[in-house]
Every structure is written in structure tokens, then in C-alpha cells.
Task: structure prediction
Amino acid sequence: MEDLVKMCRVCMGEAEELRDIYDNKSLGDELSVELKKSKEPEPTPADLMKNCSSVPVSSGDCFPLKICEPCLKKLRQALLFKRRYAKNTEFWGRVKSERKDQETLDILEAEDWNLADRIKEEVEEEDEGDLQAKKKTPSKPEEKPRPFKCADCPKSFTGKAQLTMHSRTHSKRSTRGKRRSLK
Result:
């Protein structure tokens, strides 16, 4: 049992100077600098072992409670590597997402936006057809209320979807100039 007191938990080597695995003193290395910037507490060697391996660490597990300096430095480098990799993976995920968004925008810009003009023409034809049908019909049929009014012109619609489609015809005209000026 006395040998366990002088033995490193990681490499099982004997050393005169060993650190307690529950001591969280700073080493002043690159990890310490990064932790200080992010205002995170200094991890104990036990925390490092838990974070960098799948092996559980507990005070009552009858394993040595000390670690040598070279093993501690390697553990700290492993955590630094793990953190850097996670940070870069997150960055690349954002880049990939932004690229997908840009591809979607490119597809939308390349689409035939005359569709909105065609919808406008169809709606106008329907409106004219409705007016002509009303003129031909001697008795007035009951009209549906048109609560959805266009903010840009005097037209009103029975449904919100119709208003939305109609309002695109207004925004289409205003964005044409903007698109050309951006190119």
C-alpha cells in the first residue's frame, strides 16, 4: 500500500514529486491562459482524467491519488486539444450552415420571378371577370367580406394568402431596382 503513495496513477511510475489528483493549482501553461480568458476554473487532474478518457475517477476506488508532472502536462495538452477541436468543429458547422444559406439565396435569385407578375395578372383577370359577371347578373349575389386590405393600393381580399400573394407584386417592383443596383 505504501508503494501506491509514491506511484503515478497514469503511468504507474514512481516519483519523488507527485501532485494530488484533486489539487487544482494552475501550471501557467497554454491551458491556464485559455481558461483565464474564458473565466473558467482550473480543472483538477481528476477532472482532466474524466474529461479525456472514459474511465471513471473517484476517491474511493483504491487507485493511486497522485500524478506525476509529465503525465499531468500530457493530460492538460489533451484537454487543450479536445477543446480546440470542439471549437473548430463548431466553427466549421457554422461555415457549412452559412454556405447552405448562401446556396439557397443563389437559387432564389436565379429563379424566375416573373411568377409573381403572372399571379398578379391572374388575380387582376379574376377581379375583372368578377366585375363583368356582376354586371351581367341582374340580381346581386351576396359578396363575401374582404377584411384583408392592401397597404399599397385600394384592393382588398377575402383571405390572408391572397393578400400575401398580391403584396409580393408590390415588393417585386421595389426589389428589382435594388437587385440591379447591388450588382
